[in-house]
Amino acid sequence: MTDSSALEVNQLLAAWSNGDKSALDKLIPIVERELHELAHRCLRRERSDHTLQTTALVNEAYLRLVDQRRTCFQNRAHFFAIAAQIMRRILMNHARDRAAEKRGGGARKVSIEEAAVLSDERAEELLALEEALETLAELDERKARVVELRYFGGMSVEETAEVLGVHANTVTREWGQAKAFLHRELNKDPA
Known about the structure:
It is a single chain. This protein has 9 helices and no strands. By secondary structure, it is mainly alpha-helical. Helix content is 75%, strand content 0%.
């Protein structure tokens, strides 16, 4: 995105946050490609046979973004940070629903071969990551936001620093610490 279009996005976000509904109509065509790229990055970490497609994830996120009543978007980076957070929540809800189905909700008889699908394991891994991320958020909210923006949002160190209002070195340090924490949490012996 060029500097002029980034400035235009910032202006449209400010107008939309101040109640100008027509600003949203002008904004969406400009950010649509980037929302698709963001959704693609989010889905790239999912299983290959995921039932949500990029366009569906963008559409669902769009509906939730439009429904944001209390959010004043500070700038383009803040908008995409919120979009990444919304997409992450959509994927978490999808994984939870899938895990609930696996445990008997709407169950149907399947063969052992069908039951051994890797996608269910992926949903469980994603839920374990979500749980570890919630634990991290309880201990250090900013480190959890760094993970959310970098891992789920696919943001660079500089973009993450801009959203959080910190120096890029802080993001780099906290990203490393957060990854180490999550690694420990995910590899804990459950006993």
